[in-house]
Design goal:
By secondary structure, this protein is an alpha/beta fold. It is 41% helix and 22% strand. It has two domains: 120 residues, 3-Layer(aba) Sandwich (Rossmann fold), CATH 3.40.50.2300; 101 residues, Arc Repressor Mutant, subunit A. The protein has eight helices and twelve strands. A five-stranded parallel beta sheet has the order 2-1-3-4-5, sandwiched between helices. A four-stranded antiparallel beta sheet has the order 6-7-8-9, with helices on one face. The longest helix is centred in the middle third of the chain and has 20 residues. The relative contact order is 0.11.
């Protein structure tokens, strides 16, 4: 059974979400503070973390940052409705996706399943020999490792998925719609900036080229293109 860790100080909401997730077949544990949540997340006993941004004491983004130092476990953030700052900061810190609060349990389950499908597909779909090479970029889908200019890239699961889509289509323009469907596992929502934030994070980790530019180009109104060096 898939094990979910829910970190949220709203006891009533957490109990409701826990009950719903368990009805959907997820073995769910709920904790109410960031320190306990971080410790549980790093215990190796969970498949995915649902993390509220607004926590007492250690805030959700700080919890996420500490998790990311040691683990690539998928993390879904619960953010304030309409608060783009929380969403962007969460994504930049390594969250795989987000759901605004107050959240609908069905949407939360759908996002969780989308993330888990990507993880399962990534771990089982590719043989070890199926390495993706795009110029100075090498991706190893089976182990979820990436090398750029001979250096290891510390990517989140979602960042790896998006970079893999771009690298596989090296030289071609990939629309945000396609990136969302293949990289995030869900349709592109109107005004959703998740793709832009994830791509920006990938660019920062790859660094600039000798001419100051990036290997990932933005084509306004069309999408993104990975340029082979």
């Amino acid at each position: 059974m898939t094990k979910i860790l829910l970190i949220d100080d709203d006891v009533e909401l957490a109990d409701m979400l826990k009950e719903y997730l368990e009805q959907e077949g997820f073995d769910t544990t709920a904790v109410q503070d960031g320190e306990t949540g971080k410790r549980e997340a790093l215990s190796g006993g969970y498949d995915l973390v649902v993390l509220d941004v607004m926590l007492p004491g250690m805030k959700g983004v700080e919890v996420l940052n500490r998790i990311r130092v040691e683990s690539h476990i998928p993390v879904l953030m619960l953010t304030a409705k309409g608060d783009d700052v929380d969403r962007i900061v969460g994504l930049e810190s390594g969250a795989d996706d987000y759901v605004p609060k107050p959240c609908r349990p069905r949407e939360l389950v759908a996002r969780i399943r989308a993330i888990l499908r990507r993880v399962v597909s990534a771990n089982s779909e590719y043989p070890s020999a199926n390495i993706v090479i795009a110029g100075a970029l090498t991706l190893y889908p089976e182990t979820r490792k990436a090398e750029w200019l001979g250096q290891f890239l510390n990517l989140t699961s979602t960042e790896f998925n998006l970079l893999e889509v771009l690298a596989t289509n090296c030289g071609l323009v990939v629309s945000k719609k396609e990136l969302s469907e293949k990289g995030l596992g869900r349709p592109l929502a109107r005004f959703d900036r998740s793709i832009d934030v994830h791509v920006s994070s990938i660019r920062q980790k790859m660094g600039n080229l000798a001419d100051g530019g990036s290997a990932i180009l933005t084509l306004r109104g069309k999408g993104y293109q990975f340029v082979k060096l």
